[in-house]
Amino acid sequence: MHKYSLEEGKLLVNAARTAIELSLRMEHLKNDIIYKRVSGLSYKDGVFVTIEHYPTRTLRGCMGYHSGREDIGKSVIEAALSSAFEDSRFTPLSLKELDHITIEVSILTEPKEITGSAETRNRKIKIGKDGLIVRYGFHEGLLLPIVAVEQGWDSKKFLEEVCIKAGISPEMWRQPAVKFYTFETQVFKEESPEGNVIERHIKNVH
């Protein structure tokens, strides 16, 4: 994964917000208008865009891609629109909400498979550093590193919860046929709606 500067992070967060706003204000949005703002970022990394209510920080949408599909700018714009309008857990975002949400962009490293027995895999997970992906047949689930920290989960609980996210039994983490992968993130976030963009660091790694 490319190490992104704060200026690049700001560019991506602003592109995500602009995409959502233009989509709400324009009936026929031409994404090329926004792509031009981030055309200089040709890196291909996985990305998720998280939308939260402000100031409660309750989730409003989170969608993305665990591996690089195309240039990071385009991926961010597509993930932002999916988070705002296609996350099945929520109704589509409305224009009146736009001034009451914050945007967060998480850029993902390439996933690495966790090998070994179930207990070995459990020991290898570093809470606060690692995100998790689970794959089993047609089932797949992903949880960002920050989720385990915010929820106060240990590695076993993290494994169980990513299984639930994928629609399989939480105890399936013990099965050797179930594949798990870790990844890390670089995160950029608005401090307030349309406010200053900072790089977010997860402090309590253990």
Describe this structure in words.
By secondary structure, the chain is α+β, with helices and mostly antiparallel strands. It has two domains: 6-109 and 185-200, 2-Layer Sandwich (Glycoprotein, Type 4 Pilin); 112-183, Hypothetical protein ph0010, domain 2 (Dna Ligase, domain 1), CATH 3.30.1490. Helix content is 31%, strand content 25%. The protein contains six helices and nine strands. It has helices at 6-25, 32-35, 72-85, 118-124, 145-151, 155-166, and strands at 46-53, 59-65, 101-108, 112-113, 131-136, 139-143, 179-183, 185-190, 197-200. The strands form two sheets. The chain has a five-stranded antiparallel β-sheet, with helices on one face. A hairpin with a 6-residue loop joins strand 8 and strand 9 (197-200). The two termini are 23 Å apart.
In terms of per-residue confidence, which ranges show pLDDT below 50 for 5 or more consecutive residues? none
C-alpha termini separation:
23 Å
Q: How much helix, percentage-wise, in residues? A: 25-40%
Helix-strand pattern? HHEEHEEHEEHHEEE
Q: Please, how many helices? A: 6
Identify the strand order in the major beta sheet: 2-1-3-8-9
Question: How does CATH name the architecture of the largest domain?
Answer: 2-Layer Sandwich
| CATH fold description of the largest domain | Glycoprotein, Type 4 Pilin
For the sheet with most strands, the description reads: 5 strands, antiparallel
Instruction: Write down the CATH class of the largest domain.
Output: Alpha Beta
User: SS-based structural class?
Assistant: alpha+beta
CATH homologous superfamily grouping of the largest domain: Hypothetical protein ph0010, domain 1
Radius of gyration: 17 Å
The pLDDT mean sits at 92
Number of domains: 2
Indicate the proportion of strand residues.
Answer: 15-25%
* DSSP strand count: 9
